[in-house]
């Protein structure tokens, strides 16, 4: 297939699902179900995919399963939109080896996380990302999520990393929208900035992001695209109204069990299974009823894009 998006200066923009990975009832990888779900999101108008991120249960898959999933995705998507893969490994060497292997599957880019478990300092963080960049010719989105992973890549560090052309984009998930303005003031348009926290996306859009890596888009792709389009058309009041409807759902993306909650929403919408791999277990009892009530309320009251002329 053509890899027109595969260059170190790739320009990514729009709504990028952090796609779920579907499993069979016995816990084995379900590639056809995952691809079927990707089609639902493509039909909803998304602009790209991030496979095997946190929502895709990266650390719950074996390396050969990850590569199988990437090859199947690239073959299935056929260049319609860019396909990125998460790189979330325990050591820098492992991240480099995985990046090199992912490169061979035909993906269009990498979303690279800091090394897992060990909390690197600034010097170690910089070396980790630079070494991964040496291992591939793919453009890289650097994922900053200090809330979940304990490593905060601050704007000053991104300015230091700006001399590496493979660093194309930043997924900013610090839960501080002020970072968007700080990054723009410090780095200009050097990086494409992506929001990574679902319930801060409208604030981030107003501040001038280029894209949105989303979790709840797995269940509500049309609605994600609706917010995106309304803001791009500067229809802010309508975007705010949709955002207020969406916020209780988007907040499910910010909690420790976000994978289970998002997969439950996917299942309720009829797009896939809620099956996860342990230690993540099926949510039960009062917690299940509480989350289901949010999801079902959202489904029942979802906005109709036709009323916005879309």
Can you offer a commentary on this structure?
The two termini are 32 Å apart. Strand 2, helix 2 and strand 3 (83-87) form a beta-alpha-beta unit. An 8-stranded parallel beta sheet has the order 1-8-7-6-5-4-3-2, with helices on one face. It has a single domain, classed as TIM Barrel, CATH 3.20.20. Residues 1-7 have low confidence and may be disordered. The protein is globular and about 50 Å long. It is built from 12 helices and 8 strands. It is of the alpha/beta class. The protein has helices spanning 31-43, 63-77, 92-103, 122-134, 146-149, 155-161, 178-187, 201-207, 221-232, 236-250, 258-268, 285-301, and strands at residues 14-17, 49-51, 83-87, 109-112, 140-144, 167-172, 192-195, 211-214.
How would you describe the oligomerization state of the chains in this entry? single chain
Rg calculated over all Cα atoms: 18 Å
**Uncertain residue segments:** 1-7
Number of separate structural domains: 1
How many helical stretches? 12
How far from one another are the termini? 32 Å
Q: What strand line-up does the widest sheet have?
A: 1-8-7-6-5-4-3-2
Mean pLDDT: 96
Sketch the topology as an H/E string, one letter per element: EHEHEHEHEHHEHEHEHHHH
What do we call the CATH topology?
A: TIM Barrel
**SS content category:** alpha/beta
So, the CATH homologous superfamily?
A: Aldolase class I
Major β-sheet annotation: 8 strands, parallel
